[in-house]
TrEMBL record:
Gene3D superfamilies recorded: NAD(P)-binding Rossmann-like Domain, UDP-galactose 4-epimerase, domain 1
Database matches in Pfam families: NAD_binding_10
Protein name, entry field: Putative nucleoside-diphosphate sugar epimerase
Species in which this protein is naturally found: Caulobacter vibrioides OR37
UniProt-listed InterPro entries: NAD(P)-bd_dom (IPR016040), NAD(P)-bd_dom_sf (IPR036291), NmrA-type_oxidoreductase (IPR052718)
Domain (NAD(P)-binding): residue spans on this chain: 8-159
Amino acid sequence: MTTIAVTGSTGQLGRLVIEKLKARVSGQQSIVALARDPAKAADLGVEARAADYGQPETLAKALAGIDVLLLISSDAIGQRVAQHRNVVEAAKAAGVGRIAYTSILRADVTPIGLGQEHRATETLIAESGLGFTLLRNGWYLENYAGAIEGALHAGAFVGAAGDGRISAAARADYAEAAAVALTGEGHVGKTYELGGDDSFSMAELAAEVSRQTGRSLPYNDLPEAEYAKILEGIGLPAPVAAMLAQSDVGASKGGLVENGRQLSVLIGRPTTPLPAFVEGVLKGL
């Protein structure tokens, strides 16, 4: 029996991964949901164990008997490396056979600042001696749901991405890729650069929303600092606003485009197209 565990199982990505795993596991595979509060994982329909990235004492018990572990990256920007190190060290001590990690697209060379912590985590995993699979995820289409709603209110999209192309895919697409890598053969030692089949610029996103709404919603490109101030103005903490603005600039330098279509190959179907995503967002508003 192979036991597969997923950290951050009650988060948006984690829940989808558990759902996809349940549809794929064989009779010789079982699933464990790891969460800071196992009670929040009760509705997932699998065994749940307490595990907190920041509390190493919880990790040894949580990882006992685990063969394959999906480490979903922490959302604590600035603390990720220390937290991920706790998980990797606990996995090694527990005898976990392989770690799959949700990294960022081309983590080794990305111009996006978030890549620094992902690079460091990839190094920790590689140096652990454990088997590994690196899932270098591009941007989620869902990242733009708020921008669409905001543009409908403000009459325009804003950002600092220039003409940079973005190979975004739905969160469910990345979750399915993780489930494939966790349950299938041939993924040990592999690094996957994952993105949507078709890329788009922010101007093209604005044009698609304009087409579907019948409104004229332009994209206004701004300097990084000005965009960060706008994000602060809608209530985001300054460090988060700065991170998002810098990520946009990284996109303008090619940091979010990926034409290899490894994601659709891995999941065996096309990724979610931009028009379908936009339609879903608009229906939900």
